[in-house]
Amino acid sequence: MATTVASWRDSYKGMSSDNIKGLVLALSSSVFIGASFIVKKKGLKKAGASGVRAGSGGYSYLYEPLWWIGMITMIVGEIANFAAYAFAPAILVTPLGALSIIISAVLAHIILRERLHIFGVLGCALCVVGSITIVLHAPQEREIESVIEVWDLATEPAFLFYAALVIAAVFVLIFNFVPDYGQTHIMVYIGICSLVGSLSVMSVKAIGIALKLTLSGMNQLIYPQTWAFTMVVITCVLTQMNYLNKALDTFNTAVVSPIYYVMFTSLTILASVIMFKDWDRQSPTQIVTEMCGFVTILSGTFLLHKTKDMADAGSAALPIRIPKHSDDDGFENEGIPLKRQDAMRSASH
Question: Is the pTM of this model over 0.85?
Fold first, then answer.
């Protein structure tokens, strides 16, 4: 027993006070963000009942108070998330978004009447196990003394190449795929949000570091690099908000949340590894353990996705897409449109 306790103490020696602060902030962020998905979805439902739906290009939700409550809740969560990135590496902070999946899926089951299969609960549990595995083996935060150091990392050839690929992919999705497939393929909207999100997180982390250094007495606001990162964040966040609203209004919340989480986390970790070279400070064993944890998260989200798909497919009364108009009470059973199913649609008519 004493040996076991000692081994646990040894495992926690690698977690710095900054990492613990980032962990607490990230957990708080997930709670707020998970709840905001549901509140915003209810606001989108109400707005869509009396105007043009967000999924069809409308913006009537901007006049819906419930949507703004959800937006404020999300902003609070994002602020906590913003602060977390200033203290801990992205590999630690980002995977904790799994908690927001669980909160969102459970609330969707209770409030929005979007059924959560028993195996979906198991999927949520796998997300938690995978996240804990990654947290316990996360690298220490890189020591940075100026925002100029972050700018130098962002302008290295490897990250510039990654950023160029992301921007090119986003433009291709927006102009070539959104018009034809945005309403029927969930990966289009989510792909845009996730790709843009990986760049926004790197910029958010840069701004967080700049603010932390400024508050400690080293003013970073005098550097143009700080404001350049700020402009990138504003552009990316507005793009993410627009296409995430479209995804939430068109597809099932219990599916949007996990798929968005998987893609966003994968791309963010990749961007962080390229830009901040997180794995350079870790042993092969730690890296492999982190990857095992991430595969566990992927397995959980895939299970949540497939069991929800199976549950909806088993009911002939469930539509493939969210109807253009909701019922009087604002609720309806929602299907999961992951691909075109023309035969089923024609049969329903």
Answer: no
